[in-house]
Amino acid sequence: MRVRPSLTAVAAAALVLTTVTGAAPAAADRGSGGRPLDKVSFGDPYADCTIGARSPDSVVYPGTEVEPYLSVDPRNPKRVVTVFQQDRWSDGAARGLVASWTRDGHAFHESTLPFSSCAPGGADYERASDPWVSTGPDGTVYASGEGVDFTKSTRSALLTVTSRDGGRTWENLTTTHVDEQPFFNDKPSITADPTRKGTAYQVWDRLDNDPPGPNGFDGPGYISLTRDGGRTWSEARPFVDTSAVPNSQTIGHVIVVDRHSGTLYDFFDWITYSEDLNTVIDAHYAVVTSTDAGETWSAPVTVARDTAVPEVDPNDPAKLLRAAATLPSPAIDPKSGTLYVAYEGSDFSGGAYNSVQLVRSTDGGHTWSRTPKRISPKGVPAFSPSIAVDGRGTVALTYYDLRFLKPGNTTTLPTAYQLATLPHGETRLLSERRISPVFDWLQAPYAGGYFLGDYQGLTVAGQGVRAVLTRANSGTPQNRTDAYSGSFRTPVTR
């Protein structure tokens, strides 16, 4: 979901195991460099589910997998877990969420995540959205998502599960927070603390569409955490307060952790609207920090202006796209502690279209680059940046761009996924390669725009990085998209 009790956390049935949908043979796909991508989505475990229709106008896209994320076991880079939405609905969320896991880095197998009623043993929600996954230092995998109702109620809930066997089975299904209207919970992420065994943090924005006083709405950041490996979670509470600025909300909360000091950094977008809520009057990325494992947090520090403009087909602006505008992608250099944030912005096009932009901080997030650096090519719209920094300080970014779109072409939208690497974050040393085939974005499901997902995933894996991405298929209306993953070495630098 996107832009849109204070209740005690409820631990649902302990040890809830989901169905393993079986092994599937790996399928290779290649970009321009001949490097293979492994297919991670197979079949449709929710094909027979009839739950979730909101109205006669609701369209479900069967066989679609969108909005993937991933995590790699820090002890073994071949142990990978990806998560994604399965069977996207046109008017919000999906039939359910699915995990895909591998123990050899290539052959992926699926398991269902119990975040909706479509999943075996799943939570009592009509749809699910916003999958996220993170692996702790002991190999415990934490997955999170959002359960939502559209017909029988107006609930939105934050849900978590854990896996002790690398994503094959899932347990400890927990509702960390749930609300009815006028509240709506959105865009959760989950981060396993690499310095504190058994500790993980779930963060999100909680929109109040009818707050007391003159505000039209309020959207603070919320947090719940576990100290026992996901068996129990703390009562959800606000940790980024937006009430002092009328008609403000946060969105896109993601935590990264300094492995040396244990400091937590939570990044998000802060958006303020006009009194009639029709105009954005300010938008900027910000960060708050915690030095006591999430108990207390600093005041927000501005990272960069959010200059993203609407995502559209540049040859036919009436065709809306939907990618990662307003959502920051942060990372931290595990050796130096340098912080980086990648995001979509229009600083380099005079507001005409979005590029991939990058800022950094070398003093623990207190100050940030005065001006962003452009990472994607000049003159080319680019979308959905993801970022990771390896142990040698090489910054890696992935993103979609439209460099293959020819003037006048309004029937297809040729798109490809790129990987850029910057040793020590230096743009003068930037190198780039295409890691996916060219595909037609306009074949993707339509959900507020042609939808590949509000985000994609990138993480460190051994001596390089591993990506997960959505790719659209042509001529297959019952299978419009699939998810793929691949690992790539990063340059060795001194």
From TrEMBL:
Q: Does the keyword Signal apply?
A: yes
- Disordered as annotated region, ranges: 472-494
The Gene Ontology biological process annotation of the record reads: ganglioside catabolic process; oligosaccharide catabolic process
Reaction catalyzed = Hydrolysis of alpha-(2->3)-, alpha-(2->6)-, alpha-(2->8)- glycosidic linkages of terminal sialic acid residues in oligosaccharides, glycoproteins, glycolipids, colominic acid and synthetic substrates
Q: Which UniProt keywords apply?
A: Signal
Q: What Gene3D superfamilies does the record point to?
A: 2.120.10.10
Matching CDD domains, A to Z? Sialidase_non-viral
In the record, which residues are listed under signal peptide?
1-23
One Gene Ontology CC term in the entry: cytoplasm
Q: Into which EC class is this enzyme placed? A: hydrolase
GO MF term set: exo-alpha-sialidase activity
Q: What is its EC number?
A: 3.2.1.18
Q: Tell me the superkingdom of the source.
A: Bacteria
* InterPro entries in the cross-refs: Sialidase_fam, Sialidase_sf
Q: Which family does it belong to?
A: Belongs to the glycosyl hydrolase 33 family.
The record, for PANTHER family, names: EXO-ALPHA-SIALIDASE, SIALIDASE
**Protein name stated in the entry:** exo-alpha-sialidase
Q: Which organism is it from?
A: Streptomyces albiflavescens
